[in-house]
Amino acid sequence: MLHRTVFCAFVSVLLALPTLAQDASGCTDHPVITRYPGSALAWCEEQNHVEYAIARGPITGYRQIADWTEVSGKRTRLYYVIKGTTSLRDIYLNYQNALKGAQATILAQGTQEKSTSPEIGSRTFLGVFLSRNELPSSAGLKLLNGSATSGGTFYIAGSMSAGGVPVHVVVSGAQYSSEEKLVLVDIIEEVAIATDKIKVNAEWMKQQLELYGKVAINDVLFDTDKATVQASSLPVIAEIAKVLGMLPKLNVYIVGHTDMTGTLHHNMELSGERANEVVRILTTDHAVAAARMEGYGVGPLAPVATNKTDEGKQLNRRVELVAR
User: Any idea what the Cα angle at residue 303 is, between residues 298 and 307, rounded to 5°?
Assistant: First the structure.
């Protein structure tokens, strides 16, 4: 099923099967992986520069998974519906064999019939995994619903290189009913960001501070649900240090903001930790006097866009410099 390792026999079967349902408008398969024969592509989404968490271990506490791999890049999400009596296990084994045939490194895999099992691949496991990589409620996807008492769910994640680019494929599946199986395929391509297009520079920040008394910066990125600044964002923090050097009498609040994902208490703590991590980097790596900065977090309490769309959430996740 992987584009570069598809066997001729599989292709001939795929071509011989009739289309069981029409694909959603504007949706097509990703070139790195084909669909299971007879699947209908019911929904798709493509976004650039997305943070993504790959679950790599079982549930270890109340709705908690301890082992994750954080990646970021271009994310494609494909949601397939498979009608008929094909077993969910057959679908799982086909995706498993395709990833192995492509010499992917398998990060995690498992199929479970018991929905409450803490093991990789159970319905409960998928619920925790998808709470970190949310699906839009407006899409009406049924991956975690269903009336089947048997047939279960599965999960498999693998990493490989395609054209010299690191690519991660994460496949989740569920039996919705005896006649309907559902598969979500997430493909994350770690595409490099062109650094010569950055508009967030010291001069621009200086203008914003002088005009409005504050500047919002969306380009300071953190690992998902952590206060760890991603390496790609360190040049942006260096620009913050430059603007503080250009305005030596300016003292600032550094304020962390989140979207609405998660609880208010958690987001308030997380945004404060992120703001103070920026303060720490400015102090230790750029010799900015600590007395000039105070870090605070306001969580999701001051949105600049709707939290009902991924685009809006991305705008709300930001760090602001506020003159004081």
Answer: 120
How much of the chain is in helix, strand and coil states, percent to nearest 5? 30, 30, 35
Q: How many helices (H) and strands (E) does the chain have?
A: 7, 12
Q: Which of 8-12, 72-76, 167-171, 309-313 has the lowest mean pLDDT?
A: 8-12
Residue 1: the pLDDT is: 62
Per-residue model confidence as pLDDT tens digits over 4-55: 433 322 322 333 334 446 899 999 999 999 999 999 999 999 998 889 999 9
Closest by CA position to 37, among listed 95, 96, 121 = 95
**Number of independent structural domains in the chain:** 2
Rounded CA-CA distance 53/49 in Å is: 13
Instruction: Confirm if 64 and 44 have CB atoms less than 8 A apart.
Output: no
Look up residue 90 and give its two tokens. 């057959």
Q: 17: which 2 tokens?
A: 């099967």
Are 228 and 306 found together in one domain? Answer: yes
Q: Hey, what amino acid is at 27?
A: C
Say if residue 176 is in the same domain as residue 48: yes
Average pLDDT of span 64-93: 94
The confidence score (pLDDT) of residue 192 equals 61
Q: Which of 135, 166, 189 is the last residue of a domain?
A: 189
One domain, residues 46 and 178:
yes
Same domain, 62 and 175: yes
Same domain as 182, residue 89? yes
What's the CA gap between 215 and 319, in Å, rounded? 9
Domain of 184 in residue numbering reads as 3-189
Would you say 252 and 292 are in contact if contact means Cβ atoms under 8 Å apart? yes
316's tokens: 């709300």
What does the pLDDT look like over 277-299, one tens digit per residue?
999 999 999 999 999 999 999 99
Residues 68, 171 share a domain: yes
